[in-house]
Amino acid sequence: MAFNQSNQTQKLEEDTALMIPLSPASQTFSSPIISFNTFCVVELETLLDEFETTEIIRNLFLPLNARFSSIIHFNEKGVPCWKKVDVRVEDHIIVPTFPKGLSTIEYYNECLQEYLAKIAAEPLSSNRPLWEVHVVKYPTLYGKGSVVFKFSHALGDGYSMVSVLFTVFKRADDPSRPLTLPDMSLSPYGGKKSLWTYVSKCINTISDIASSALKGSILEDSKSAIRSGKLGVEFEPIAISSINISMDRVKQVKLKLGGTINDVITGVIYYTIHLYMVKKGDISAEKSMNLVMAFNTRMLQGYKSIEEMLRANVWGNHVALLLVPIPCISGEQKVDPLYFVTKAKEIMDKKKNSMFTYLSDSMNKLLRATKGIKGVTEFLYANLRNSSTTVTSLIGPKEKMALAGHPVGSINFFMSGVPQSLVLSAMSLTGQLRLTATVEKNFIDSKVFNSCMKEAFENIFDAACGAGTTS
């Protein structure tokens, strides 16, 4: 009897040691109210099969973090914890079969987009660690095959996922050399310091806090051609499309107009929304429209290298949601495409001259202390549902990457489960910018919106650098 009791005590101690409480952010992203999944789509120049993928996952992926080998389990006190389990890698790898058709690259590319939309609607199993890998053995516009990583946002944010790429992927030209990052630092608002600088910073900070508080409670954007305002929109079918833009061309626009690359990208998004609304006969003037910019607060630390970033605590969710107004103009008015970039610069300069992002963690802690995890989750959900769109971005390495010797042709990412009709993501990698739009399928015309993204950048580029200019 004593022997059995000793064994039970030892087993309880072992189980306890294997369970780590979820962070407040992970609890938020694994709740009945919010359940986001992040998808990273890697298109490879040579075909990777499921057997190679299994070895990569087992030997390189799983050892990176205990969360990849854990499920969410509630302990005896009802606290959600990461509980270590045995992982059968084969259960997490899916190899789809596409319908037979014309067997063209364009056909398979469309099949991939439809498949991504399908798996985005499927919840991850709570009985297994919260990730999947889909091995697509069909050619696309950017590769001979694709590997799709699907992660629960509870595991970590996009920055955490990028750290996986930096660790598992190697340089294509020389695997022994490290991948390097573009400049990721973000300095506080510069310029000449004066009394007005500090006064305006205080005004902007108070304005940003007030806007966030109102958007997370009672203030709702107008319904429009990009916002249905439907309850439960996050459960509606989605469509996914993307475009590739040369970063050299983006930099040419930046040099002509000043500002930052982010200003140019935001200007392209503004103009895309304007073009789409005009084509749909929706006049945006007098409407209230805002985008939520998901800003990673780790950027405030300004890592100089991948090694420095990986040595830091990159896992978790460290994101501030910055509310940014969308310019609303009459569809009948002829607008200079460059207006949207200059307007983006004006708005983003104002946002930089604010302490909102620096205070976001403290504000979340205060909200959690007063309203609990459920209150924080409801506030985040309302901020997103009451806004028109969300924009997220990731910065990839400067060098061409390879996965187990298979060169990477392109990478894009997107999120599912966001309570909005339109979500945009931008990924820069080896001189290319991939802009991806995830839309409510039965409300937004994905093909028209995609053509608007292309038209928006081309019009901005021609207006800034002259029609017919090449990179």
UniProtKB/TrEMBL annotation:
Reactions catalysed, as given in the entry: a long chain fatty alcohol + a fatty acyl-CoA = a long-chain alcohol wax ester + CoA; an acyl-CoA + a 1,2-diacyl-sn-glycerol = a triacyl-sn-glycerol + CoA
GO BP, sorted A to Z: triglyceride biosynthetic process
One GO term describing the cellular component: endoplasmic reticulum membrane
Superkingdom of origin organism: Eukaryota
Family: In the N-terminal section; belongs to the long-chain O-acyltransferase family.
Protein name: O-acyltransferase wsd1
Domain O-acyltransferase WSD1-like N-terminal, residue spans: 112-265
Species assigned in the record: Thalictrum thalictroides
Primary localisation category: membrane
InterPro entries registered for this protein in UniProt: O-acyltransferase_WSD1-like, O-acyltransferase_WSD1_C, O-acyltransferase_WSD1_N
Keyword Acyltransferase applies: yes
Membrane topology summary: Single-pass membrane protein
Molecular function terms from GO: diacylglycerol O-acyltransferase activity; long-chain-alcohol O-fatty-acyltransferase activity
Ranges for domain O-acyltransferase WSD1 C-terminal: 315-460
PANTHER family according to UniProt: O-ACYLTRANSFERASE (WSD1-LIKE) FAMILY PROTEIN, O-ACYLTRANSFERASE WSD1-LIKE ISOFORM X1
Localization in the cell: Cell membrane; Endoplasmic reticulum membrane
Alphabetical UniProt keywords: Acyltransferase, Endoplasmic reticulum, Transferase
